[in-house]
Amino acid sequence: MDISQFFPVWDKLEENDRNALAAAAIRRSFKKGTVLHRGSEDCTGLMLVRSGQIRAYTVSPEGKEITLYRLFERDICLFSASCIINSLQVDVSLTAEKDSEITVIPADVYKKIMQRSAPLSNFTNEIMASRFSDVMWLVEQIMWKSFDKRLAAFLVEESVMEGSETLKLTHETIGNHLGSPREVVTRMLKYFADEGLVSLARGTVTLSDPQRLAEIAES
């Protein structure tokens, strides 16, 4: 997959800028569970997801995690190169949820081209706006939606993504995604199990009634 496929504005860039981006691009492979980016500690560069699945999350001072969004094939991660945007202070970490192939464009190279290329600058701003929209949607869910609805929605979405009603997820992992303590997740899953919505086994959650879970999520 050529990097031009990640940029709808590729044909609007100057030839020397296209060549510079292509020459600087570094292809890397990451195994599932690998930490790709450690928040404000790093300014890795712009990440282009060739294959796999990346989790973007933030960590509180107490070590509590919450998933902000996921990145899939053909997605672009801007927050891994947040230093290219003046005054943008973000603390987003990235972990490979599946074996992944990534192309990285170093932050300094991308920033220089972005500063002189209006099409690339505008496209970058669009990416940033889209990601902030994802984060704001998450904030609204946390503020206004009860935990049973959020958990039901998460389970249904995971089932769709994995193409299976049996999810290999621990209660702690679910808690990290939703920003909730493991004990809260365990209590709600037990309630779901008592209601016949899920069945539980060590390290797995099986959706017994996906339709009812979807109805809870949407109610």
Explain what this protein looks like in three dimensions.
With 219 residues, this protein is of the alpha+beta class. It is 42% helix and 23% strand. It is elongated, with a radius of gyration of 19 Å.
Strand and helix layout:
Layout lengths: L14 H10 L1 E5 L4 E4 L7 E6 L2 E6 L5 E7 L4 E2 L15 E4 L3 E6 L1 H10 L1 H27 L2 H16 L3 E2 L3 H8 L3 H13 L3 E4 L2 E4 L2 H9 L1
Antiparallel strand pairs: 1-8, 2-7, 3-6, 3-8, 4-5, 4-7, 9-11, 10-11
**Biggest sheet: strand arrangement:** 1-8-3-6
Mean pLDDT: 92
Shape: elongated
* Strand percentage: 15-25%
Number of helices: 7
Order of helices and strands: HEEEEEEEEHHHEHHEEH
What value does the Rg take, in angstroms?
A: 19 Å
Q: Tally of extended strands?
A: 11
Largest sheet, strands/sense/barrel: 4 strands, antiparallel
Short description:
42% of the residues lie in helices and 23% in strands. With 219 residues, it is of the alpha+beta class. It is elongated and about 65 Å long.
Spell out the key features of this protein.
single chain, 219 residues, alpha+beta, four-stranded antiparallel sheet, 7 helices
